[in-house]
Amino acid sequence: MSKLWGARFDKKSHPLADKFTFSIAYDYRLAKYDCIGSIAHAQMLGKQGIIPKADAAKIIAGLKKILAQVEAGKFKYDPTAEDIHSDIQTRLKAAIGKPADKLHTARSRNDQVVLDVKLYCLDHALHLIDAVQGLQQNIVHFAKTNRDVIIPAYTHLQGAQVVLLAHHMLAYVEMLERDKGRIKDCFMRTNVMPLGSCALSGTSLKTDRAYLTKLLGFAETAANSMDVVSDRDFIVELISTCSIIAMHLSRVSEDLILWASKEFDFIDIDSSFCTGSSIMPHKKNPDVLELMRGTSAKIFGNLTEILVLLKGLPLTYNRDLQLDKPVLFDTVETTQDMLVVLAELFVNLKVKHASLASRINEEGFFCVDAMDYLIKKGVSYRDAHDILGNMVKKCLDKDKKISSLTLGELKAFSPYFNEDVKKLFNPKMSVNIKTSLGSTNPNLVNKQLTKWEVSLRGV
Ligand code: ARG
Question: What is the residue with the minimal CA distance to atom 3 of ligand 1?
Fold first, then answer.
């Protein structure tokens, strides 16, 4: 296929140079946005009388046909085209003839490509928000189905205190809500219309950029032509947001992997989301979750790649910028997949009630509750900590239950102890007595569950 810039050259480009420089194999994903952008551009050129209205109409009709093909999934990119912009331009010429030559008036691929990539980002940001929301909904549903379940919670991966499983689950929902906020922030800063910046300095032709902004549905028109054709910070921001999402999904995965192990035995992952071992017949491995954790590494790699790609580039456009696309597409598509897969895994996730019930009575989990008991009676935090520390050393470390101590034995640790302290060595009591805002108290957690159910409904 002929290039958009051939006339100045006295020889054809080397096939190796073509192979190395062509971006069509990945930027074909921009076909839809390229048509949408070009339709608006042609409309503006016609309205301004920069090209004849009749030519603009032919261009628009031709582009709409290509767009319909793209939207029907029938568009097959031409691998001999340099990029998607050249491919669509050539198809248009084949379809409508000479008027197609006027489409690129007052435009460069430098502003065209940024427009296409921005439209891609805006579109996919909305899909990502939906996917995050879908995952949140499934986590909330899982939490609500199991709202009475109590689990051990960990610090340093050592059993710490007990909490409601729903409380643990809603922690992820909070994280994902901030992720949605970050996507919305990216959306807002991306929502600035670049077209009309041309190669880098603008144009002497009487374009109407505000009209383009309106036609394309952007919130603002970019104020500096050099900024717009040079920068890709909106891509960095989206990849960085996806990195945070992937990091969160990786942590959810890690919790579930641990919980599904025989050593923890809190949950059962549906076998449709597990795989077996080729040698050990007893194995049911959480490979989907392991790959969720592993795939996040690739997204962090993409973030590093785009930052390094950009950091040394002088203004304005450099061909290096073409390489913003593989990392962007890979990140967005992978994050979307991760969100959808994890959401589905939650649908058939089962809690192992009997096993969990046998794990939440370890008396160490209730030491802080017993400390609070003493503090409420006027004992200082430091003294209460020492008293409980002694009890752990003399009882729990020797497999003796604190709840089985006689009143005399209790008083030997602290005269403030009465029989009623023994009631605290109970998982239900432990969650019930937490009253602080944001705690694992069942009433508060139920309110949170309802709040999330309502706020995540629709949108
Ligand atoms: N495929 C190119 C890209 O993605 C299009 C822009 C080429 N512009 C240029 N001045 N060589 O960046």
Answer: 322
Query: Which residue(s) pair with 154 in the sheet?
Result: 159
Instruction: Determine the 3-state secondary structure of 67 from DSSP.
Output: helix
In terms of residue numbers, what domain contains 414? 361-425
Residues 253 and 325 in one domain: yes
- Is any ligand 1 atom within 6 A of the Cβ of residue 330? no
pLDDT tens across 215-236, in order?
999 999 999 999 999 999 999 9
What percent of the residues of the chain are helix, what percent strand, and what percent coil, each to the nearest 5?
65, 5, 30
Identify whether residues 98 and 122 lie together within a single domain: no
Active site residue ranges: 156, 277
The answer to whether residues 387 and 323 belong to one domain is no
Q: Is 158 helix (H, G, I), strand (E, B) or coil?
A: strand
- Whether the pLDDT of residue 280 is over 80: the answer is no
Domain assignment present for 432 = no
Does residue 23's CB lie within 6 angstroms of at least one atom of ligand 1? yes
Using alpha carbons only, give the angle 272, 274, 276 rounded to the nearest 5 degrees: 115
CA distance 249 to 339: 8
Give the nearest ligand 1 atom to 84 CA: 1
Binding site membership of 322 for ligand 1 (Cβ less than 6 Å): yes
Please indicate whether residue 328, judged by its CB atom, sits closer than 6 Å to ligand 1: no
DSSP-based three-state secondary structure for 397: helix
